[in-house]
Amino acid sequence: MSTTYALELKDVRKNFGKTEIIRGVNLAVQAGERVAVIGPNGAGKSTLFNLISGRFGPTSGDILLNGQAIQHKTPYEINRMGLSRSFQITNIFPKLSVFENLRCAVLWSLGYKYTFFKFLSGLKDANERAEQLMDMIHLDKKRDVLAMNLTYAEQRALEIGVTIAGGSDVILLDEPTAGMSKSETSRFIHLIKEVTVGKTLLTVEHDMGVVFGLADKIAVVVYGEVIAFDTPEAVRANAKVQEAYLGSSVADSQAGGH
Ligand SMILES: Nc1ncnc2c1ncn2[C@@H]1O[C@H](COP(=O)(O)OP(=O)(O)OP(=O)(O)O)[C@@H](O)[C@H]1O
C-alpha cells in the first residue's frame, strides 16, 4: 500500500542558467510532522521553498501536496490546495490594525475579494475567525493597534496568524524567529508549536536552538542535496552531517541545553 505524504519531492532539480542549484532532492513529509530545513548559506534552502510554494517551477522532478502534483501550479493555486507560506519579508499591512490584518487574510483565503455580495454574507464568519486567530497568536489585547506600532516579535506573530488564516494544512515558515531576542525566541517556538498542532510544518532555520526545540525531523541540505532526513537525535549523531555542516553548531546547542 502506498502512503500519501503531506508533501513529497521526487528527484527535484532546479537549474539557474547552466548551474544546477537543486540536484535531485527526494523528501517525504508525513502529515503533522514538523520539519526544519537546515544547511550552509547558499545550499539551496530558500530555492527549495520557492519550488514548493510555486514561485519557481522545477527543471525536472515532481512535487506532490497531499498526493497531488503541484510542480506546474502557480503560488495562488498551491495556496488554494492547502499550502501557505510566510516570508522573511513581512506580509502584513502596516497601516491596518491587528484585527483588520487577520480579517483581510481570512477573507482573502475565502475568495471574497472577488464578489461584494459574497463578501457581505461572509463577513460575520470572517470576524469570528479573525477573533479566534487573534487569541491563538496572543494578540487579543492589541486588537486595534496598527501593525506598524507592534513590537517586532508581535509583528512576526501577526504574520504567523496571517499565514495560518486560511486553514492550510501545510505551513512553510522562513526563519520565523530571525531577529528576535533569546527570550522572545523561546516564547515564539512555543507559539509556533501551539498554532501548528495537527498541521505539517516546514521551516528554514539557522538557529540550532530553534531547530532542536521545534523539529520532529531535520532535513539537512548541502550543495543542493538532502544529505540527511531524520530525527534530531539521529541527525546529531550522523557523521556525514557532522562533517559536512553541523559540527560546532550542534555542540554549541547541546552545551546550551537545547
Ligand atoms: N533566482 C536565482 N537566479 C540565480 N541563482 C539563484 C537564484 N536564487 C538562488 N540562486 C543561487 O542558488 C544558490 C542557493 O541559494 P539559496 O538562496 O536557495 O540558498 P540558501 O540555502 O537559502 O542560503 P541562505 O541560508 O544564505 O539563505 C545560491 O548560489 C544562489 O546564488
Give a quick rundown of the structure.
Residues 7-248 form the ABC transporter domain. Residues 254-258 have low confidence and may be disordered.
Whole-number mean pLDDT: 88
Number of beta strands: 10
Q: What structural class do helix, strand and pairing data support?
A: alpha/beta
Shape: globular
Contiguous uncertain segments of 5+ residues: 254-258
Give helix and strand order, one letter per element, not per position: EEEHEEHEHHHEHEHEEHHH
Strand order of the largest sheet: 6-7-8-3-9-10
CATH class of the domain at 1-81 and 206-258: Alpha Beta
CATH topology of the domain at 1-81 and 206-258: Rossmann fold
What is the name of the CATH architecture of the domain at 1-81 and 206-258? 3-Layer(aba) Sandwich
The portion of residues forming beta strands comes to 15-25%
Question: How much helix, percentage-wise, in residues?
Answer: 25-40%
Q: How many angstroms does the end-to-end distance come to?
A: 38 Å
Per DSSP, the total helix count is: 10
Keywords: ATP-binding, Cell membrane, Membrane, Nucleotide-binding, Transport
Protein name: ABC transporter ATP-binding protein
Pfam families: ABC_tran (PF00005), BCA_ABC_TP_C (PF12399)
GO molecular function: ATP binding
Which properties best describe this structure?
globular; Rossmann fold; binds adenosine-5'-triphosphate; ATP-binding; 10 strands; membrane; ATP binding; disordered C terminus; BCA_ABC_TP_C; 258 residues; 6-stranded mixed β-sheet; transport; 4-stranded antiparallel β-sheet
